Amino acid sequence: MREGFLRVGAIVPEIKLGNPLYNAEKIVEKIRDAYDYGVEVVATPELCTTGVSLGDIFKQDYLMEKVNEAIQKIMDETSDLEITIVLGTPLKIENKLYNVALLIYQGEIIGFVPKKNLSPDELRCFNTGSYIYDRKVNVLGHELMFEKNVFEAPNHEGANFDVELSVKELKYLNPENKTIYLSINMTSNYDVVSRTVKVKKEALKLSKDNGIGYVYIMPGINESVTDFVYSGYSVIIDDGTIIKEGEKFNFEGSLIYGDIKLNEEINDYVIEKEEPIDKKAQKELNKYPFVPNTPEDIKERCKEVLELQSSALARRIKQLGHNRVVLGLSGGSDSTLALIVINEAFKKLNIDNKGIIAITMPGFGTSDRTYNNSINLAKEYDVTLREISIKEACIQHYKDIGLSVDDRSVTYENAQARERTQILMDVANMENAFVVGTGDMSELALGWCTYNGDHMSMYAVNCNIPKTLIKHIIRYEAERRNSKTLFDIIDTPISPELLPTDEKGEIAQKTESNIGPYELHDYFLYHFLKYNSTPNYILEIATKAFEGVYNKEEIHKWLNVFLRRFMTQQFKRSCSADGPKVGTIGLSPRGDLVMPSDLDASIWKIM
Q1: Over the stretch 302-334, which tens digit does the pLDDT of each residue have?
Q2: Fewest CB atoms less than 10 Å from the CB: which of 99, 136, 277, 331?
Q3: Which domains occur in the chain, in start order?
Q4: Neighbours of 77 (CB within 10 A)
């Protein structure tokens, strides 16, 4: 070791969700690797022995028995190592469940830190650490007292460090003790676009302002991707300088390490005030709040969104053990984005694209343009293509239920959407595959999908991507591949193609003529959910933002359509498929939008 330095490490081990004994093996492997590199203090993410995304399964006593076995295994198998381990784990203390950081050294527990500030979701399972503050408790046979979260590394005299669990802001560090050199922040945070950029910026400032080292660790991609994506981001910073960053979305886990200098005393915690930026006001003037303002930022956003989507899908593919997926390929923007995501996921897993079974299903409203684009797209991505017409099946179905083939009602349309979904589901069964959904957030917000038709899939990769962002992502891909097909898809009118084409064989049914422009609906959705803005206020700011594009009467009309549909369509969102959250706004009934399906929508109308 370099004199005057403390070598610290951050590990994000490969885990199996809810399998503590397997996880213990992988944790020990990473700890031993860290020790071989001379690491003196090593830390994991929160709840690393089980995974953070178990939900109510944390309440199971049997799981906690296995957790205790796993902790003992880690202690036993590292007892010969002079390394301080900061282990994130659930733990029962006095018959109550806590989220804790255990400090282990040479087979002994030398300290612990229970998480005190819990979210409502965490409070479903865990107790606040305030209950066991400043008194002795029995922690797996060790009599310990939690009175502070500052410890001295037993293998490095005078090297004091602070342990926090998911603290968003670094507070004044132990004013009685002026010799803290390192703060370890173990988190349970999932990733969304720009989160790691923000984390890095805040951590750099906190480290610089305090004159200390800083370690930040997020859970890895092997967590559940039911609604969120965990990237495994980790970073080591010293005095405002990045020493090492970990690789994101690594299924095999990661280990980073670096040297933190031991200063004689910590600086006072003083943060220079910055001029506040009114981000809300900036967004109000931006017609496209889901899309960054500059070409460079748009490109980076598209890259990051694809990384989140494809990593989540790759995780689900690994979980199911299928190397085959089924996709309905229409030649429209949503199914195109889904194909791009699948292609990226298959590259991550080194799977042959022939395992992507793309099915084009021409119907009564299919245009030559979208049909040809779907064929060309399948060729460009070298996937398995099948063509299955739905016309005869739908005509037979209309006859069976007594519906005239000349009918143009919602039943006529929805029967086609459900027929397509039935084909996808049945082919998936035949091929030992699963169906990747194509529906996006804008459609889900409006309920513009056929219940148990295009509304349903086995994993919905686009469910939190708004329409206004989707075309940018496709353009990003089109430029990377120099694809004429993708550029043409960007310019194709949005349509479910469920009504017959016009006399020229072109799209007659255009979605935005029916329900309104998606650029308006995405604007309404953003300000309604992000800032809880009132309908009248949204009308006011939208009129300013879209001046010269839409007049106030048009915005008024389409805002009422948005409010009515948003308030009445929760029943579709309540049973929507799993899918990754990629931004700050999401519609999952499990992790984001909690609202009743029986809401009285009558007040949600602007007169």
Answers
A1: 999 999 999 999 999 999 998 999 999 999 999
A2: 277
A3: 5-261 (3.60.110.10), 282-574 (3.40.50.620)
A4: 17
